[in-house]
Amino acid sequence: MPNLGIYLIGLREGLEATLVVSILVAFVVKAGRRDRLPLIWAGVGAAVALSVLFGGLLTYTETTLLKDPADRELFEAITSVLAVVFVTWMIFWMRKVSRKLKGELTAKLAEAITVGGFAVLLMAFLSVVREGIETSLIFYAAAANESGLGPLWALTGGLVTSIVIGVLLYLGAVRVNLGKFFTWTGAILVFVAGGIFKYGVHDFQEAGVLPGLHTHAFDITSWFKPTEWYAELVRGLLNFTPQPTVLETIAWAAYIVPVLLFFLWPAEKTAPKPVASDATPAKETV
Amino acid sequence: MNTPRTRMIAAGAFAATAVLGLAACGDKADDKGGASNEIAVTATDSECKLDKTQLSTGNYTFVVENKGAQVTEFYIYGENDVIVGEVENVAPGLTRKLSVPLKSGTFQGTCKPGMVGDGIRTPITVTGDDAVAADDAELSAAVATYKTYVATQADELVKLTEQFTTAVKKGDLDEAKRLYPLAREPWERIEPVAEIFGDLDPLIDGREADLAQGQEFTGFHKLEKDLWIGKDIKDSGPIADRLIADVKTIAEKAKGAELSAAQVGNGAKELLDEVAATKMTGEEDVFSHTDLWDINANVSGAQQAIEALRPVLAKRDAAFLGTLDTAFKTVNDTLAKYKSGDGWKLHNELTQTELKELSDVVNALAEPLSHVGAKVLPTQ
């Protein structure tokens, strides 16, 4: 099975992009704002086009832009942190909506939320582009493989599988009732965003911007092999890696714990305190 | 208003701009100096082989081929395992490239089959001067400056030669004689570049005395002889046509010529050698005696070459640059004594003493100029 490895790479890189996009799509559909869908696809399309173009430039030309791998790490780090900002904003937004649901009719929901068009576009763009260039470089490398097209098909298979998983996630998500949807997808997003944040910090370390690349929090690579399918899967979904640095682990925890607590904290009991819904602006117009 | 449609258009425009912007970035690719050196890395599940490990400073592309069964990664670690470069996701069977500039020092080429552990390490030793990259950029800039000069002189050469040959073909003897030394000036300023194209130089500027057995006498000096000795240019049309055709060809070639900084420096020296060898003796323009036009053009061409190299020379040897500047000034001051109207005195109007003085200052400049080429070599 020499091509299993590249299949799993495709699956992992694909999931990192499709996960956020499928939740985003489900959210927009649930909120009755299908008119926002073209913006999501525009963001995804722009990111894919950019990645394919850039991968080609780096592979076939002597371009100097982003040729230095450290620059690419930095690019991934910055786009990842930006993606976290947008996803976090979406999480809080979901929380507010789920609170509102308690008293209001679902039909009114579409009016109640104004889904920021540019934010949606940018979120879709960032989610895809941050790993897009690396993926397209792998793609070009696989296409150039002299000993056959096996790796190319395997990589494509991995990407397609990630899209299928994204579609399934979407189908599952649109089926559940609204209250559950916002709670669950919101909670999932907290972990996804935490993973992206951890990944971004790691890339900042690899780019040499942050220190401590070789100071590991723990190392379970002896039994949790990073090339196994389950390892690639959880890395694609949650960015869990078996040998994380101390800094990225702290960053992960520092994000997950407060955001998750805040997201799940019962609104009724804390209503008088300013912690709850007041923390986000009353109206989201972007 | 922010209707979905206008937002879609905005989104599309955003994407298009991004793509176009990046495409433009790809274009400027090739102007950034030389191809990088490739180093083949063969990674297996138990080995990490580099085909070269003793390197000199510069840009390198590691071509990593995974011949193992596991997904691997390739890192270049510096001191304290600082990542100098890395390429991840090298699946079995794939070849991926890693481009890194390497300064002097010790590095570890590292493969990580299975993406775990400290990896299989191969030490890399890089020696050389770390200032190379910056210096080389300055050398390229100097060459670019000089090439701009060559291009303007090449255009000037075509323009003036065209006027000259037109006058010859019209049979306008006086006008042709007036234009002859002027048309030669741009030629004499950039002659070392023209000499790269060896076959054309003798056709354009060959002297009668230097002709090989059976070789036809053509070019500037044939027309010079017709104008001053034969005083008859009725039959000079074909020679004039051939001259302008050859000049146009060589001007185009000169504009496209690839030069190194050392060639620019050596060219400056060759210009001064020309002065000493044939012009000081009056052999160059033996019929017209307009040698001083040529001499002045040679000196100014050499001076332009030094101007182009000035930033590099100032950095590498400021005292030497001072010597050159003084020597140029002396030559120009001496030449200035023989100005006559818009042009110069004729060679045969100068006394032996005057020629001797001019010859001495020219030699005093030629000596330091002969060291320029060696001072503008790349540091590697």
TrEMBL record, chain A:
It is found in: Membrane. Its main location: membrane. The keyword Transmembrane helix applies. It holds the Pfam family FTR1. Belongs to the oxidase-dependent Fe transporter (OFeT) (TC 9.A.10.1) family. It comes from the Bacteria. This is Iron transporter. The chain crosses the membrane at residues 6-27, 39-61, 73-93, 105-129, 149-174, 181-201, 249-267. It is a multi-pass membrane protein. One of its GO terms (cellular component) is high-affinity iron permease complex. GO terms for molecular function: ferrous iron transmembrane transporter activity. Keywords: Membrane, Transmembrane, Transmembrane helix. It comes from Actinorhabdospora filicis.
Automatic annotation (TrEMBL), chain B:
Keywords: Lipoprotein, Signal. This is Lipoprotein. Residues 142-370 form the Imelysin-like domain. It comes from the Bacteria. One of its GO terms (cellular component) is periplasmic space. The lineage of its organism: Bacteria, Bacillati, Actinomycetota, Actinomycetes, Micromonosporales. Residues 22-125 form the EfeO-type cupredoxin-like domain. It comes from Actinorhabdospora filicis. It holds the Pfam family Peptidase_M75. InterPro entries: EfeM/EfeO_iron_uptake, EfeO_Cupredoxin, Imelysin-like, Imelysin-like_EfeO/Algp7, Imelysin_sf, Iron_uptake_EfeM/EfeO. It is found in: Periplasm. NCBIfam families: EfeO. The keyword Signal applies. Belongs to the EfeM/EfeO family.
